Amino acid sequence: MHVPPIPSLATEDPQLAALIEGEAQRQHDKLRMIASENYVSTAVLEASGTVLTNKYSEGYAGKRYYEGQQFVDQIETLAIERAKAVFGVDHANVQPYSGSPANLAVYLAFLSPGDKVMGMALPMGGHLTHGWSVSATGKWFTSVRYNVSKETGRIDLDEVRDIAHREQPKVIFCGGTAVPRTIDFPGFAEIAREVGAVLVADIAHIAGLIAGGAHPSPVGYADVITTTTHKTLRGPRGAMIMTTAEHAAAIDKAVFPGLQGGPHNHTTAGIAVALKEAGTDDFRAYAHQVVANAKALAAALTERGFALSSGGTDNHLILADLTPKEIGGKPAAQALDRAGIELNYNTVPYDTRKPFDPSGIRLGTAALTTRGLTEEQMPQVAAWMDEAITAAGKNDEATLERIAGEVRDLLASYPMPGFAR
């Protein structure tokens, strides 16, 4: 059963309620390993589903365009102060609707159409909004891209420096959507200073690890830090932009009125709860366990012949090239889903296949760790993955069904926030 319960919805719209209950059951019964997903706490769910959704609040605390902000101002201020405390930043804006608008605000704050922006190429693990051609950021601005080394799968900062000096971008992004290794924030900061660029650290994937001390922080190196509030931070689907005092006004103006109207106050409340949780010793232990689980899973997969990009991981994320397994990423991901193991197909660096039918899969350990799994279970997870991928190549649906049952049996012992049996 979904927690909090939804009896009014079940009465008013039983069809939708049944779908939501089905999704809650699905999330409970599967090994959720999509690297950008997690489970939020019941407290975050409750905060995100309140009467705050009724309220319009264009502007910022103390400077709104609508009346009736006595409580909303306090809620947004609370979220801001908690973000500043958890991450140790001068300024935080908690209003962006999601990660892509947060990144777009950076462009509006610091660039004019046609200016150069530098980011990791999408096929190498970068994000669409770091200047990729199909994104507005690649259509409206001049994109300069850096890659990872073919030999190591890691960023070569000497190459980044050479490109930056040659192209002279105004903004440099570090971070991405499929980066399994520690980001060298000091190295990027040095390059940005050399060319006079604004350094933006996109920590959407690793924000929770940074908050918990399991990954180095960009604070003190990056001028601007963007992040989603879900993923490893275990908050609702929203975003934040954190800056030095120097850039606070430009970012705030870019978010509102530059890109958005009223913030989603119910989401702001959920962010505030998640940030309170992120400041606890329990969360710190969680962040370190996420990394420990990922390292253990990477080692177990390597033992079973999986080819991991960069040879492993330093964070929550693993990127595997399935070429040695003689199967594409898409059919493998679909078979794994039928086996109760949820992840996504993904390009790998220098992939020879098309993006919608790539060679790789991307997976992470944030959600598994929230459920309470540890290094002890990672060899079994790797074994199930290997067996399911082998079964996929043989159209062996019986094996996939059996694994799904074994996954359900395992997870029955690990409670899920938001669901009660």
From TrEMBL:
Keywords: Amino-acid biosynthesis, Cytoplasm, Methyltransferase, One-carbon metabolism, Pyridoxal phosphate, Transferase. The record marks H230 as: Plays an important role in substrate specificity. It holds the Pfam family SHMT. GO terms for cellular component: cytosol. The keyword Amino-acid biosynthesis applies. Its cofactor is pyridoxal 5'-phosphate. Residues 10-385 form the Serine hydroxymethyltransferase-like domain. Its main location: cytoplasm. It is an enzyme of class 2 (transferase). CDD domains: SHMT. (6S)-5,6,7,8-tetrahydrofolate binds at L122, G126, H127, L128, E246. The keyword Methyltransferase applies. Belongs to the SHMT family. HAMAP family: SHMT (MF_00051). Catalyzes the reversible interconversion of serine and glycine with tetrahydrofolate (THF) serving as the one-carbon carrier. This reaction serves as the major source of one-carbon groups required for the biosynthesis of purines, thymidylate, methionine, and other important biomolecules. Also exhibits THF-independent aldolase activity toward beta-hydroxyamino acids, producing glycine and aldehydes, via a retro-aldol mechanism. Thus, is able to catalyze the cleavage of L-allo-threonine. This is Serine hydroxymethyltransferase. It comes from Micromonospora polyrhachis. The gene is glyA.
